[in-house]
Fold:
Amino acid sequence: MTAPTTTPRKGGRWIEQWDPEDDTFWQQKGERIATRNLIFSVLSEHIGFSIWTLWSVMVLFMGPEYGIDPAGKFFLVAVPTLVGAVLRVPYTFAVARFGGRNWTVVSALLLLLPSVAAALVMEPGTSYTTFLLVAALTGVGGGNFASSMTNINSFYPLRKKGWALGMNAGGGNIGVPVIQLIGLLVISTAGAAQPRLVLAVYIPLIVVAATLSALKMDNLAPVKNDTGAAKEAVKDAHTWIMSFLYIGTFGSFIGYSFAFGLVLQTQFARTPLQAASLTFIGPLLGSLIRPVGGRLADRIGGARVTLWNFAAMGAATLVVIYASMEKSLPVFLVGFIALFVLSGLGNGSAFKMIPGIFHAKAVARGLAGEEAAAYGRRLSGAAMGLIGAVGALGGLGINLAFRQSFMTGGSGTPAFVSFLACYALCFAVTWAVYLRKTPAQPVPQTETTAESAKRLSYAEV
Structure:
């Protein structure tokens, strides 16, 4: 991935040579360029997340006059999650096909479609089918995450990936609480009958983000789509194991972000203003802590952080189940916000594991130095889009679980019990695959030191 292209590309801002693992290159100019691209990647992804979760805010404006029951609203906010998850796969490959800077501009401008459409249809009397179609359009905002993470992964050396990917994803995730805060501001000042004011804020911001991306970001010419890497990543068991673990972390974050306000309204009879005044807190804290998860993973190992994070998520879920059964809103808020914080922490640590796992596989194959780093970048870049897509489907599962739970039991308790089981399974898988110590095997006397070093270990990923 780091070899120069034979034919320089014309037009746009193309960098022909890029080797972040070279310390001299990194210190002289690589870090400065990577940081600039990270800043504007965060801006675009931030707005993408806001538009992706737009309907978690729009449903707060949808009173009885809209004629949509709670089950219908849960399904309405689940649709963007599904579309966004599916789009993450082609968005991953778009970076190498069109260039990271070029695709960031295009993907930002695509956010105008759901924003303008929502501004046109958001009023009582609009059919539920129309609302579903417009909500589906917001899935393009979910795709932004995959292309942004794939792009930034290529800019940074392995030792910096946890921090860089955590900052990129965390800055993007903050788009969730920001749009919820804007929704709160609109409801508290203009009332629940003015949802279009939210769109009036975001439409010009989309144009600004696209313009700044065009002016300030770069394309990396050495980054190319590698169908062989994609096929290898699909066949690798670790891609699917990490996809499952990412369902537990990111799936929880995005699913709870979509559902929080509806749960407060449905289970605790909060008004739109009361719900809006609380919904932003969890996503905000979960977003802010994501880089901390990446930083901790850089220092002590992503697998270790992820393991104990799932244990803590299970404990927080037990608190939520108790509060749900006792109908205690204060205790419920403590447990639910803790879930947001822990899901954000786990997002950072789990995503850091991906490049570490494939680098460890390279070392186990006898590769070293830049050759091992290139192999790790090649496979991890191919795997990230798929892992991000499958992980986002966890958000769909959470909203469908809430929908079924409220339809059949009138409470979210059964849904939370199912989430508890999921976190327990995630804990077990993390330990069994990445941290379990296998019985000591006798080392053959003929084995060299180099051969011994090849033995695969994931404890530090």
